[in-house]
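Entry 12.
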Amino acid sequence: MFRNQYDNDVTVWSPQGRIHQIEYAEEAVKQGSATVGLKSNTHAVLVALKRAPSELSAHQKKILPLDTHLGISIAGLTADARLLSKYMRTECLNSRFAYDTPLPVSRLVSMVGNKLQIPTQRYGRRPFGVGLLVAGYDEQGSHIYQTCPSANYFDCKAMAIGARSQSARTYLERRLTEFPNCTPEELIKHGLRALRDTLPNDVQLTTKNCSVGLVGKNTPFTIYDDEHIEQYLKLIEGEERSPGAGADDEPTRMEDDAAAGAEGAAPVVATVETGSTD
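Predicted 3D structure (tokens):
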């Protein structure tokens, strides 16, 4: 790991205006297993790749329900995601108890952004090492939000995060205009195809290593695992992958700096926005 004198604490700025501890947390997200989110006019879908620490253990859950109208998928440190999901679930319950109404998705994501921002400016704290894709449906329609360790969050039409997620984002960008009018089944097919592009060529999607979350109009948040996802995997069985699928992502900013440092050159200058809630 490339280190320097400005990465000892999250409160230390580098001369280039960067906070390296936040960038390291973003690297944890990039090393997590991939997850994809996309939406139509009436539904939102999450598709996630599950990993098993060993052959003796079960695959780790990647999609978590929060309320009947929304759920999340994670990439990064599962323990951090567990804490954030508990906080989000509590806020959803508080809204139903106090106002007898589901919490709007945008308001929940804003609250999570504020929580993520706190450890980015306090001494002795570390940023959350997890990225979230939030899928929900409320009075404003269907939503896909992405949250980052830097406390930025984005309202997305479609998004993929995690290892090799660039291949999935390329697939989503090419077919972005098709999503608004898709049926739930077609959305799931697109999500599975995008997720499949993040896998090495010798690995296939199975009922054990992937899961799907669906929410939408008159459709409560539902997770499909194991044998329940087999019907959707059969729909894309035998299809060819997109060109370049399974390739590693572009070199990260830290990797560029490490290469520059090894060659005796100056580090690449770049800035990172921290704590903003765009």
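Annotation: Confidence is low (pLDDT under 50) at residues 258-278. The longest strand covers residues 130-138.
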